[in-house]
Amino acid sequence: MTERIEGHGGELALAALRAYGVREMFTLSGGHVFPLYDAAHKTDFPIYDVRHEQSAVFAAEAVAKLQRRPGLAVLTAGPGVTNGISGLTSAFFNASPVLVLGGRAPQFRWGSGSLQEMDHLPLVAPVTKHAETVFSADDIPRAVAAALTTALTPHRGPVFLDFPLEAVFSVGDAELPAGPQLSPLEADPDEVARAAALVAGAARPVIIAGSDVWTGDAVDELRAAAEALTVPVFTNGMGRGALPPEHPLAFAKARRVALSNADVVVVIGTPLDFRLSFGDFGEAQVVHIVDAPSQRAGHVQPAAAPAGDLRGILTALAEHPGDRVDHDDWVAQLRTAEDAAKARDAEEMAAETDPIRPARIYGELRKVLARDAVTIGDGGDFVSYAGRYLEPAQPGTWLDPGPYGCLGTGMGYAMGARVTHPDRQVCVLMGDGAAGFSLMDVESLARQKLPVVIVVGNNGIWGLEKHPMRAMYGYDVAADLQPELRYDQVVGALGGAGETVAKAADLGPALQRAFDAGVPYLINVLTDPADAYPRSSNLA
User: Fold this and answer.
1) Are 46 and 62 contacting, i.e. CB atoms less than 8 angstroms apart?
2) Domain extent at residue 244
3) Residue 127: inside a domain
């Protein structure tokens, strides 16, 4: 028998949210959304508030990423919603099932100039899977359920609803939604068989696994397919850690060698974008495995492109009934290259130079990070080093801005990570440029007793811009920050603690103090501004 619910718009929305597994709200206070707060307060539904709306959306996205369920941000009308659009856009690029509920000026007085009166939908529609204004309290549960179903349906992504003032404050009556009813999307079996035959028959195959392998809960199936076919695996995004670093088929350092010599490159659950040379791997054939037809690349013609439930596709690869080429020599060749690269990295991570080289920071971090620690990258140059030197040991423990490359995710992601994992280490790796976007939300973390460790690589410049601009033009502009700025003192003033480190030998003890502190703790590491991450431009 269908259960009916009655209440004001906030109570109706919260009942539907609970049915879909939402367990907390991230917000910045605003009068247009008071009924949502009232409903949460009266039922002990956790509310976490921030100092900038983008952090609320980033926190909701961190929950969505880490827990593979909807994350919720509640934003007041007008500037509350517009301040959250960068977070929505990141969630859109990252396929994160985030629901943003927005306040809205009253409909009965629309056009008269109410406070913060604006139509949000044209702004958010391009960066959401669904955007809708709900004009009746009775319709709120239906709209919430439909939006969350859309958010959770591959290819996943953010959704947006706003409620005019009179709708969310009014009392309504509606059926309680039953919760998500999702069926796996079956891939074309002929396309799957074609992909399996290509991989099994290749002499030098390579797998690159991305975030959708984690999001689609296909980590075990990825391992089974790699082991059954003996294929080396590289990862990016939240695919990192899908195979632990000690796994014989897990690789991180030999990617250039692998992609230069591969004859089949299998890209699973990640787009063929700038991070993967736009899908151009020379003479190698490309197999692109995605979770929905919409994710097939339009700029590349792959040899096979199965689209559907990743667990089913990867299981079919593992169970391929045809002939299989022996890949042991190929794996051994890559292992030799991998070991040589690791030896070079080990030397860099032990460098005793002062000013401190970024590699040394990551060498010290590797000594203190637990296997289940959540590491968060928020920056450009400094976080590029993190991608090279840190190797997550478990899946679902790495958060970075993703292909949209939006700075400012750090404190919101940290909040969502701490809420998700109250007993794990949470470490934010932040460039000094990125610190300017969200560091004020340390106050939100401190006030709500959400301790995290923040390591700032402070080189006093925009590292990914200063050096390339100087190389291109012989000069640089708008690329300098205040040298040796005391970000640790900022955090101390906001209720946390911290210290500045200028010598490599002091890094290890400082990190230990940070993880023992029990409050937001920032280590402000003064790094060499001449030591920028070497990589070619991916802007084109």
Assistant:
1) no
2) 189-334
3) yes
User: Distance (Å, rounded) from C-alpha 287 to C-alpha 317?
Assistant: 12
Residues 378 and 519 in one domain: yes
Q: Is the pLDDT of residue 355 over 50?
A: yes
Listed residues 334, 365, 391: the one ending a domain: 334
* 59 touches 416 (CB < 8 A): yes
Residue 510 has pLDDT above 70, yes or no: yes
Residue 537 is predicted with a pLDDT of 40
Whole-structure pTM over 0.90, yes or no?
yes
Max mean pLDDT among 13-17, 179-183, 382-386 falls in: 13-17
Tokens of residue 457, six digits: 């690589």
- Assess whether 128 and 194 both reside in one domain: no
Q: What is the model's pLDDT at position 534?
A: 53
Q: Are residues 359 and 226 in the same domain?
A: no
Strand pairing category for 426-431 and 374-378: parallel
Predicted confidence (pLDDT) at residue 368 exceeds the cutoff of 90 = yes
Q: Reading across the β-sheet that carries 98-104, which strands appear in turn?
A: 47-49, 25-27, 71-75, 98-104, 159-164, 130-133
Q: If DSSP states are collapsed to H, E and C, what string results for 409-450?
A: CHHHHHHHHHHHCCCCCEEEEEEHHHHHHHHHHHHHHHHCCC
Q: How many domains, the chain?
A: 3
Q: Facing residues of 400 across strands?
A: none
Query: CB of 429 within 8 A of CB of 379?
Result: yes
> Could you read off the pLDDT of 78-91 as tens digits, one per residue?
999 999 999 999 99
Structure tokens at 275: 């991070």
Residues 6+ apart with CB under 8 A from 47: 24, 25, 27, 37, 40, 41
* Confidence bin at 530 (pLDDT 50/70/90): confident
∠ Cα 23 392 361 (to 5°): 110
CATH number, domain with residue 221: 3.40.50.1220
The structure tokens listed for 426 are 């949470």
User: How far, rounded to the nearest angstrom, does the alpha carbon of residue 365 sit from its chain's CA centroid?
Assistant: 21
Choosing from 334, 369, 391, the residue where a domain stops is 334
How far are the Cα atoms of 153, 186, 234 from residue 291, in angstroms, in the given order? 10, 10, 19
What CATH number is attached to the domain comprising 488? 3.40.50.970
pLDDT band per the 50, 70, 90 thresholds, residue 538:
very low
Angle at which helices 381-389 and 328-349 cross, to 10°:
130
pLDDT digits (tens, 9 = 90+) for 223-278: 999 999 999 999 999 999 999 999 999 999 999 999 999 999 999 999 999 999 99
Phi, psi of 417 (to 5 degrees): -70, -40
Bridge partner residues of 102 (DSSP)? 75, 162
What average pLDDT is seen over the chain?
Answer: 95
* 72 occurs within a structural domain: yes
Whether residue 232 lies inside any domain: the answer is: yes
What does the block give as tokens for 390? Answer: 């840190």
- Find the length of the chain: 540
Same domain, 371 and 256: no
Asked if 137 and 224 sit in the same domain, the reply is no
- Is 326 inside any structural domain? yes
